Amino acid sequence: MHTLIQNLIAWGVFGKNPPRDLVAAIVVFVMSLIVFLVVALPFGGIVTWVERRVWARIQSRVGPNRVGPQGFLQWLADGIKIICKEDIIPDEADSRLFKLAPYLVMLAFILPWAVMPFSSSLILADLNVGILYMTAVTALTVVGVLMAGWASNNKWSLIGGVRSAAQIVSYEIPAGLSIFPVVLMTGTLSMQGIIRGQGWAPQHWFLFANPFTFVAANILYMSSLAEANRTPFDLPEAESELVAGFATEYSGWRYACFSMAEWGNLFIVGAIITTLFLGGWQFPHVTNNVVAMNVLEVITFTVKVLFLVFVSMWIRATLPRVRIDQLTTACWKYFVPISFVNMIGTAVWVAIWPDGNVAIGYIMFAGAIVFGAVFIQRVIYYLRRSRMEVYLNPTI
Amino acid sequence: MSAVSEYVHNIKDTVSTIFEGMAVTASHFMRKPYTVQYPDRMPVRVQDTLPFRYRGILDVDLEICTGCLACERACPIDCIVIVAEKDQQTRQLLLSQFDIDIAKCMYCGLCSEVCPTGSIHHTTEFEGADYSLESLIRRFVQDPVMAYKAKKGPETDPRIAPILNRGMAYLDQWAQPGGEKPPGEEPA
Amino acid sequence: MSTLRTEEMTLNMGPQHPSTHGVLRFVVRADGEVMREAIPDVGYLHRSIEKIAEKVGYRGFMPYTDRVDYVCAMFTNQGWGMACEKLAGIEVPKRGEYCRVIAAEFNRIASHLLSVGAMAMDIGAMTPFAHVIREREMINDLIEELCGARLTFNYMRIGGVAWDLPPGWREKALKYLDHFDPILEEYNALISWNKIYVERLANVGVITPAEAINYNLVGPNLRACGIKWDIRKDIPYSVYPEFEFEVPVGNGQWGKLGDSMDRYVVRIREMAESSKILRQALQKIPPGAVLAKVVRNFKPPAGECQIRVESGRGDMGWYLVSDGTGYPWRVHVRTGSFAAMGIIQKLSAGLMIADLVTLIASLDVIAPEIDR
Predict the structure, then answer these.
(1) How far apart are the C-alpha atoms of C232 and C240, rounded to whole Å?
(2) B92: distance to nearest CA of chain C, Å?
């Protein structure tokens, strides 16, 4: 952000010798507005359309394809419709808390965008405790969800809220512990600092830095899915058990807040993983033009995040839901101990190779490519097994 | 020791089965969807793609209705009402009412099975939505008409012959074809 | 610690709840997530079908039997047809019996597909449900070509079946079966052996063999407890003795014998067996008529008879009393779902709320079949 502001002043956008603080304030304000209105809010909507299309293809369906090109404006149509709906507040509900809860959830969704490192200079606030701030504010969701579950005065909502509390609080621990290996290796909590510790090439990512960080990345991803209430950990809103969980009694705009925050959180989950393990916005230095470089970095970062968002949709379409006792078992018996092992393992690793081990990076990257090849081979096997011609109803 | 091996086994099992499941779902990205985009995004009308035996909304060819009331008797829910009486002068059966209540009909096909000429038959039409229950009653007789009288030989009237042929085709298709012999050609 | 006071919660699950297939209602007494008891409340879908039979006559009742169990209507058709034939002493032509078996086994596959798919959906996996619906749709297309309807078939008549196989249908059906076997394997890879899925189902709702017999369970639910009892094998009817097939039984491979996973696996394996029967039937089908000559005004002699068919949900009993007129004097249907509802209250104690959903799904309860 500093470089951006300095560049803007140097180019004379604000005239000669402008007051620095005022310029900084204006730039930050405008940037936050752009991030919130152009990136964060529409993302929550668009991702619902993407998810529906992805699901549909996995399920041999077509998905929404009528509103706009390929149904792209479906999210807008849904949004307008849901805002036009009556906002029902049950008589027996605690109306103040009931009204407040969706905004708290929304807040927990909006706050993390402040430390979202889009590129080397595009970050609203490069806090020195950036990643800590990120985990802290995303956990705010639990307050809103629990509040919604309690205030609805509905037993299904209550069970959903309590489940959510148990889930988010317990999954904070493996998520936090999985961040430590990276912090140990970089020695900083700042988002930009962590990204600068990595290179643009996959073998320099922390994902492949050593075997422990690889496991930590996976654990962090699964725990983040649990915190974002995604399958296989979507217990708080398990529609086949709890109707709609904590959101059962909500309608209209308030319900839209919940669902927008839920889908928008996918971006934040992806951003955390990208920053910590996938090299963030790192892009090879191809030009000295700062603007062009920043654009390339934004694109790199977004592509990585969107890939992770896609993977989470794909996981959601594949996996069933776990039970509440299995959820806690997975957390306390598997994720937490393995996270501790990761932490200690990385500490030892860093003690042995303080500057990292590049050979391991290459070996692990090669291993990942082999894994991908095996996966593609399985996909081709299933494609061959299916007799496509039976599907093809001549009238489609 | 067994506890440790079970622990590792559980992790291995989870990862490998999820791997397989993800491979199956990934392979579906490369398959065509199995959706019929009814009603507008189809090259042909859905009604034309339905098989010949499809039991859609009932239709009656009054020209070849013999007024035998077999369908009315066969109907388990009495949704067919026929009034047929002998005309005193011409000594012929006069049909003055032939109503089918589509709202009641359960499309069981018992009526078309017993029809001797194939006059009452199911069409492939299934879009029966309407604004009132009253308009769902199909009244086939506007003015009283003579009932059809089966002739000894083949039908000679050039107006009725094609209708009768079509009706008998329904009967032929709907009734049991003898043995392995394919019953005529398959209609589209 | 003994001072910690917890309150018992009474939850009404249903009649409008996403996972109670149709309109079921359970009164759940729960302590947090753990259920003390789930009391099934039946009767929301009672349509007095048995009484209707006394009003519409023997032939007219055939379409109504479709509505007893709409997921596998061929078996209810067949049960009613067989009961009337037994009373009147009608011999069904061989080809007619083959047509019946072919239609019924296709229907069994469709019914089991729906059951396992709904189960996966209740556990939260949406994709398997869409896949089984796709497969079921293809079976529906085949059956539609055969008898003109997709759900309420009304295919069978007293004395045989209404329509012969259409030209070219046999090849189509065989082609579909060639497609179906790999699809079943793919389905297993997608969901059945998934660790999360197995963990959700194994050791849940364990029914011991003695309990299963005492509670009168039938069909796949009984066989999952390790009891080899299949009407098709043990009280053979129709032309089933001419086919080679196995009766899959539960073996407790995934947890305890008779748990939800066993019931699920038995259904998966029964689909493969049905596919085997269908291949044999489509190969061996003899020429001839499909419908015996039956007088139009069907009046069986006075008497009573009882028929058992192995439907998708197990032993389906048809009890028919005739007084010699054109209308049955009394009809009674004995269905598997009703018995399965009875055991839920016993099994539910100590389970989680999430497990109640899988328990209902694993018992394959179809609401209209409970109440009729």
Answers:
(1) 6
(2) 26
What is residue A2's predicted lDDT score, i.e. its pLDDT? 66
Burial C181-190 (b: 16+ CB within 10 A, else e): eebbebbbbb
pLDDT digits (tens, 9 = 90+) for B22-52: 888 888 888 777 777 878 877 777 777 787 7
**pLDDT digit string, tens, across residues B7-21:** 888 888 888 888 888
If you measure CA to CA, which chain A residue comes closest to C9?
A: A155
Calculate ∠ Cα A132-A138-A144, nearest 5°: 140
Which of A382, A384, A390 to probe by mutation at the B interface, max B CB count within 10 Å? A382
Q: Within 10 Å of residue A184's Cβ, how many Cβ atoms?
A: 18
Q: How many helical (H) and strand (E) elements, i.e. helices and strands, does chain B have? A: 5, 6
Distance (Å, whole) CA C290 – CA C66: 20
State the pLDDT at residue A370. Answer: 92
SS3 C349: coil
Task: Give me the residue spans of the domains in chain C.
Answer: 9-41, 49-371
| Cβ pair B53:C289 closer than 8 A | no
The reply to whether residue A396 touches residue B35, judged by beta carbons under 8 angstroms, is yes
Counting every residue written for chain B, the total comes to 188
Domain boundaries, chain A: 78-356
Q: Burial letters for B11-44: b for 16+ Cβ neighbours within 10 Å, e otherwise?
A: eeebeebbebbbbbbbbbeeeebbbeeeeeeeee
Best to test chain C binding among B12, B19, B24, B47 (most C CBs inside 10 Å): B24
CA angle B81–B87–B89, rounded 5-degree value: 175
The interaxial angle of helices C353-362 and C94-122, nearest 10 deg, is 170
Rounded Cα–Cα distance for residues C339 and A359 (Å) = 65
Strands C314-322 and B145-146: unpaired
What's the CATH fold of domain C49-371? Cytochrome-c3 Hydrogenase; chain B (1.10.645)
With 0-12 CB in 10 A as exposed, 13-18 as middle and 19+ as buried, what is C135? buried
Put simply, the answer to whether C127 touches A55 (Cβ < 8 Å) is yes
Residue written as token pair 């999954």:
A171
Helices and strands (H, E) in chain A, number of each type: 17, 0
The sheet that has C328-334: what strands, in order across it?
C303-311, C314-322, C328-334
pTM (two decimals)? 0.85
Query: Cα(A351)–Cα(B37) distance, rounded to whole angstroms?
Result: 62
Query: Residue A63 and residue A57: Cα distance in Å, rounded?
Result: 7
What residues pair up with C31 in beta bridges, in sequence order? C34
ipTM of predicted assembly, 2 dp: 0.82
Question: Are B65 and B120 spatial neighbours (Cβ–Cβ below 8 Å)?
Answer: yes
- In chain B, the domains with their CATH numbers are 50-148+162-174 (3.30.70.3270)
**Pairwise CA distance, residues C59 & A83, whole Å:** 54
The DSSP string of A230-255 is -TTS-GGG-HHHHTTGGGTT--HHHH
Query: How is C76-115 classified by DSSP, letter by letter?
Result: HHHHHHHHHHHHHTPPPPHHHHHHHHHHHHHHHHHHHHHH
CB < 8 Å to B13, chain C? 195
Q: What tens digit of pLDDT does each residue of C121-152 get?
A: 888 888 888 888 888 888 888 888 888 888 88
Alpha-carbon span B53 to B175, nearest angstrom: 11
Compute the distance between CA of residue A69 and CA of residue A63 in angstroms, rounded to an integer.
13
